[in-house]
Amino acid sequence: MKDKEVRVGLVQMSCRRDADANIEKAVSGIREAAGKGARIVCLQELFSTLYFCNTEDYANFNLAETVPGPMTKKLQKTASELGLVIVASLFEKAAEGLYFNTAVVINADGTYLGKYRKTHIPDDPGYYEKFYFTPGDTGYKVFNTRYARIGILICWDQWYPEAARITSLMGAEILFYPTAIGWAASQSDAVNREQFDAWQTIQRAHAVSNGVHVVAVNRTGREDDMFFWGGSFVSGPFGQLLYQASRDNDEVGVLTIDLSQTGFYRNHWPFLRDRRIDTYGPITERYIEPEDF
Description:
This protein is α/β, with parallel strands linked by helices. 24% of the residues lie in helices and 28% in strands. It contains five helices and 15 strands. A six-stranded mixed β-sheet has the order 5-4-3-2-1-15. It has a six-stranded mixed β-sheet with strand order 6-7-8-10-13-14, covered by helices on one side. A three-stranded antiparallel β-sheet has the order 9-12-11.
């Protein structure tokens, strides 16, 4: 393998009410990915539980845990044993009454490198995340792992080009998106296709505009009235669809990506060079009224 190549693993899985069973399945997926040569493995959003944000239920706060804590210790042991990097999404309890949707990064020697707290928090039918999660306060983050400098964003973050841009400008070579997104059971096939295509398209656009690989790992399976659409994928730095998982099956995907492609595509399509940062001040406005321009 070339110096700039790295094998990445995606663990897409359905979840049950039994957290221990979910954790066992996730660790088994990590081991399967390692057996296929993966050096960085990403799990889906909130992998240890059902997607509890479909309802506003105070009892669900009992699912949260400290970060770092017992789960990170378990993942640290697994990472150290297998010699790989793990990206994992957890429901974090920071203090009484203060909770975050958090992703942790464990280095290949088992070192806990830190966490990123989800910045954009949705509040839609079936996704009542504002009830549970405080907007992230870590800022955008990149992590220097043994195999690559990686940026972590979480699910709803994936719709915002600003988040991908900033994380890329911080030096991320790969953007990882742990995800939990799906279709309402009542929706038509046409609406389902439209939503899936938009979800994948915008992330492939992040890859193109920033010249980086994008790895999105989604959950699958039916939970109450939601069909999580799976479809975990990897995009190359010019939007190439390098890998896509099935819609409705547990799946562990592993593939080699060439990080040197970032330099190639950024040189040939110099979007970073041609950015007019002196003109972008209005981007920080919530909305620009017509009379203002």
